[in-house]
Structure formats: C-alpha cells, structure tokens
Amino acid sequence: MTMTIRNLTRRFGQTEVLRGIDLTVEKGELVALLGPSGSGKTTLLRIISGLDWPDAGQLTVAGGDWLAKKAEERRTGFVFQHYALFPHMKVRDNIAFGLTVLPRDRRPPPVQIRARVAELLQFLQIPHLADRYPSELSGGQRQRVALGRALAIDPEVLLLDEPFGALDAQVRRDLRRWLREVHDATGTTTIFVTHDQEEAFELADRVVVMGAGQIEQIGRPDEIYDHPASPFTARFLGLTVEIPVNLRAGRIEAPGLDGSALSRRAMADGPATLFLRPSDITPVPDPEGAFRITEAVSTGALLRLRLEGPADCIAEAELPRRAGVPGLIPGQRVRLRPEAGQIFPGGPGPVQAAAVPSLKTKESLQ
Ligand SMILES: Nc1ncnc2c1ncn2[C@@H]1O[C@H](COP(=O)(O)OP(=O)(O)O)[C@@H](O)[C@H]1O
Ligand SMILES: [Mg+2]
Q1: What are the Cα distances from residue 154, in Å, to 49, 99, 150, 151?
Q2: What EC number(s) does the entry state (predicted)?
Q3: Mean pLDDT over all residues of the chain?
C-alpha cells in the first residue's frame, strides 16, 4: 500500500503549523521526518494516525481516503518518545492490549492472542521480559515493548515519534540497528520522526527534511548530505560556515579562499554564499592568508579553530588533532581550502533574510 499526502494544511489559531505538505510513502519504506523542534513533525504524525485533523488536504492509503476514517479504523501503530505503557500490566499484557480491545468480530480468540504475543516477544528478542512490569524495565527495554505493542495489531503504517529521544547515546545506537532489523523482517511501512541527523541518516531509506511546516527536501541520505537544496537544509545539516564569494565562470572567488577542490557550478556570475561544514575546511598556514586563527580548542579527537576573515567573516574549521599540522595556533594566518560545500546565489544579505525571522512588530508595520 502506498500512502499519499497532498497539500495537507493545519492551523492552530493564526499559526500555520503545516503549510501544504506533499509526500508519498511507498509500501515497506522506512522514511525519516527530520526537522528542528516545532517544525510540525508530531502534528503530521498525529494527522496520519487520526489523533488530529487537517484544515485542508488529502491523505490516502492504498487509494482509500483515510480522512474519512476514525483513528481506530486506520490500523496504525504508534510509539511515542515517552513510554506510554500501562504501568499496572505485565509486558505480555501490554503487548496484547491492542488485540484485546478490537471489536468482537475482529478480535482473535485468547489462545491466538497468547500465541501472537509469544511470537512477538521472541521476534523482538525480549521473551525474558514477558512477566515484568514496566517499572522493572530500563528505558530501552520499555521502547522495545512499546514497539511490540504497536506491531501486535499488524499495522498498515507504523508511526514512531522520537522513540529513542529520551535514551542515552549507546542505547540509542543499539535500538536503531535493532529497529532497522525489525523493519526489514516485517516490511511494515514506517515513518520515523527525529531531530537527530545521524539517526535519520543511518535508519532511513529516504529522509524528509522539514522546516517551519514545510518540506524542504526529500531524498536518500547521501543525496541530502552531499547536496542540501536550500540554505535552511544546509545549516540544519551542519554547513554552518557561510562565506560571501563571487562566482565567475562557475568558480568561486574570495580573498583567502582556495576553491580549486570544488567542482565548477552551472550558476550565473555574481555574488553568492558558500556554505561549508567545519570538517570540510582545510586551513593552510600562509603568512599572506586572509584568515587569522583567533582560537584553537582540542576536543581530544579534533582540533577546532575559530578564524576571522575579511569583512567580519567568521569561520570555523575542524580537523583531526593527530594530523598535527604545524602553525595552527592563535595569531597565525591561513588560507582556507574547502574540500566540499554548497553554493547558493545571493550575498549574505538576501541569503540571511530567508532564514532570520522578521522582527517587525505590528506597530512598526503601521
Ligand atoms: N494543539 C496545539 N495547539 C496550538 N499549537 C500547537 C498545538 N500542537 C502543536 N502546536 C504548535 O505547532 C508547531 C509544531 O508543533 P509540532 O508538530 O509538535 O512540532 P515538532 O514535532 O516538529 O516539534 C509548534 O509551534 C507548536 O507549538
Ligand atoms: Mg514532536
């Protein structure tokens, strides 16, 4: 079954929280919705599951109109960040819950429910937890159980809203791998919400970048990582260094910048902004260089440099500390060699105007 979302809009009062979402999710796909807090990810999931309703737009699954269906008719499984397990029920009863509350005509007999639960406990590698209560589980174990509960009804669509957000880094990584295995074995169409880039990129077949109620970009993880399509996506994906440049015949020109490693762009001549990841900048010691190191900090693995360039341009570079390039100390001058980066037309003025919210108040508009 394919899920198709067309021009979905949701307002809360005057605020447009979803502004015309168009998205197609294919059967068996694992799609990550990636975006900063407040970008509308949870609202979109709630609408898909039937916990909330859009003001306009369409939502179809396998050609059927889901907006005409109530939540309980949609067969979605939902896992939230904060474990919503029933505290007074053992793990096996939590997992069975969705089946025991089905309408009588669709509810399997108790012996089948027990068999389904036993099968899921095995499959999710948690049979030893069957008779525990949620308070006797770690955070990671609770989320495994929550996924079991969501899968018990054999959902058409599985919706996961930052399910690992409250767990520590190592547990998150383990669960990520485990979830991908579970997904590959069940083939359940899955939408996974996260604000963590690494999580989205490692897990998903496709990543949907959301910003302020709109889809900024859809693509395979590597595609998005290498070619962020907008200044918003670039900044969100860590291309935090912005250097004003001039484009001439597809090449960048700027004082102190050696653009020879960047491929030629099919872009018009004129002012542009180069977006870079600090780790994609190689600083080359050069007494004539236009950038000056003002700060050098070691994180153990990395050496992080703060650099001041012409026209108040501030850059940051990050390189393996063990590379041990001599001369990278405060006060020294360098030129910068970007190894990869993204160029958007327009100088710092227009590019920034797109991202910085307007500070105009009602009064100042009058
Ligand atoms: N029930 C609601 N009433 C009013 N505003 C809401 C409601 N739910 C969400 N919002 C607002 O909608 C925006 C998007 O929220 P949300 O979908 O939770 O974003 P995300 O999950 O990406 O953090 C936020 O600005 C939030 O404050
Ligand atoms: Mg949310």
Answers
A1: 14, 10, 8, 5
A2: 3.6.3.25
A3: 91
Label residue 358 by pLDDT band (50, 70, 90). very low
* Atom of ligand 1 minimally distant from the CA of 52: 1
Looking at ligand 1, which residue's alpha carbon is closest to its atom 13? 38
Q: Report which protein residue has its CA nearest ligand 1's atom 3.
A: 12
For ligand 1, what atom is nearest to the CA of residue 193?
21
Q: Does the pLDDT at position 306 exceed 60?
A: yes
Q: How far apart are CA 175 and CA 167, in angstroms?
A: 10
Domain positions in the chain: 3-226, 238-355
Ligand nearest, relative to CA of residue 41 = 1
Dist CA 302 CA 320 (whole Å): 5
Residue 214: nearest ligand to its CA? 1
Please tell me the number of the ligand nearest to residue 53's CA.
Answer: 1
269 C-alpha to ligand 2 centroid (Å): 41
The residue type found at 5 is: I
Q: How far is the CA of 43 from the centre of ligand 1 (A)?
A: 6
For the residues 167-179, what does the mean pLDDT come to? 92
Write the pLDDT tens digit of every residue in 144-154: 999 999 999 99
Q: What percent of the chain has pLDDT over 70?
A: 95
With a CB cutoff of 8 Å and minimum separation 6, the contacts of 125 are: 144, 178
Please tell me the residue having the least CA distance from ligand 1 atom 26.
38
> What crossing angle do the helices spanning 110-123 and 139-152 adopt, rounded to 10°?
140
Residue nearest to atom 24 of ligand 1 (CA): 38
Which residues have any ligand 1 atom within 6 Å of their CB? 12, 17, 35, 37-43
What is the pLDDT at residue 326? 81
- What confidence category does residue 139 fall into, taking pLDDT thresholds of 50, 70 and 90? very high
Rounded Cα gap, residues 80 and 155, in angstroms: 16
**Atom 1, ligand 1: residue with shortest CA distance:** 12
Confidence of residue 362 (pLDDT cuts 50, 70, 90): very low
Could you read off the pLDDT of 66-76 as tens digits, one per residue? 999 999 889 99
